[in-house]
Amino acid sequence: MSHKKLLIIFTRNPVLGKVKTRLAKTVGDKIALDIYHFLLQKTKEVTKKISCDKKVYYSEKIIEDDLWDQSIYQKKEQYGNDLGERMKNAFNDGFKKNYEKIIVIGTDLFDLEPTHINEAFKKLNHNNVVIGPALDGGYYLIGLKKLHPKIFQNKNWGTSSVRKETLKNLEKVDVHLLPMLNDVDVIEDIKNHSAFTKFLKPR
Hints:
By secondary structure, the chain is an alpha/beta fold. The chain contains 6 helices and 7 strands.
């Protein structure tokens, strides 16, 4: 494994009623949890063979015996007052361990592929920051070669303004944008997606 590259996966602990809450308003807590488990599995399949070190950062507590194989994924717990501070702290921890390229992704993307992550690491050779823009105005991936604290501060996380404000913070920095992808937050994100048909059939 390369000790110069680190992939961080931010995940929510899969607890009924606490994941995909906006989606659950339409499909119910149980199906929302089933969909989240489905997305977790997809994220694992996408990331397990990427050539880099990998760490899973849990939202609440570390789960030892789950889908994240500890021979592949190190396990950590997120810390900080909001998503920005938690990401900043995770990046900071990685840079303190002398990683040269660090990428953070979430677990809300069915359309994410290994090529997106490999491309992000590659683009960091010639860019300071790589961002994977999401259709909702946020981002599904962010990659750094050094910490830019400002991009994690004073953001309304989960809103459509996040990416625009982040790019404004990075006006004097070389930024590469990956292809736009759609993360899964609400029913409109999945209702016409064949991979999710099995979850939306009448029961």
